[in-house]
């Protein structure tokens, strides 16, 4: 669980997850382009690749190779683990 929290501790990685949650199955090139155009981030492909590696290590991103392309997918399962561990009880206000 520590790797999940470390992965989520970075704003760029959270933006990457936001983008993958809105449109799954993006390549590194597509992610870099989206971060540059929508968020004004001009990071190198290597920097984004390293962020994706951290997210993949935490289980938040899954990858699939097709030919020479690598596609990235958001995996919400680790986040569900957190909510199962610390559930938020439904409150009833009087």
Which range does the strand content fall in?
Answer: 5-15%
Mean pLDDT across the residues is 93
Give the helix level as a range of percent: 55-70%
Instruction: Give the CA-CA distance, first to last residue.
Output: 36 Å
Would you tell me the structural class of the helices and strands?
Answer: alpha+beta
Side by side, the strands of the main sheet go 1-2
Large-scale geometry: elongated
Mind summarizing the main beta sheet? 2 strands, antiparallel
Number of helices: 5
Please provide the ordered H/E string of secondary-structure elements.
HHHHEEH
Provide the gyration radius in Å.
15 Å
Total beta-strand segments: 2
Which stretches of 5+ consecutive residues score pLDDT under 50? none
Summary of the model, kept short:
This protein is α+β, with helices and mostly antiparallel strands.
Descriptive overview:
This protein is of the alpha+beta class and 94 residues long. Helix content is 56%, strand content 13%. It contains 5 helices and 2 strands. The chain has a two-stranded antiparallel ribbon with strand order 1-2. A hairpin with a 2-residue loop joins β1 (61-66) and β2. α1 (2-8) packs antiparallel against α4, α2 (11-22) crosses α3 and α2 packs across α4 (45-57). The model has no long low-confidence stretch (mean pLDDT 93).
């Amino acid at each position: 669980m520590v790797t999940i929290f470390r992965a989520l501790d970075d704003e760029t990685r959270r933006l990457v997850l936001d983008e993958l949650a809105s449109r799954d199955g993006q390549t590194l090139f597509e992610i870099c382009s989206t971060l540059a155009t929508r968020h004004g981030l001009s990071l190198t492909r290597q920097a984004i690749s390293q962020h994706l590696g951290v997210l993949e290590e935490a289980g938040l991103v899954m990858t699939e190779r097709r030919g020479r392309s690598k596609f990235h997918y958001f995996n919400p399962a680790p986040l569900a683990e957190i909510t199962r561990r610390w559930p938020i009880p439904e409150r009833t206000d009087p």
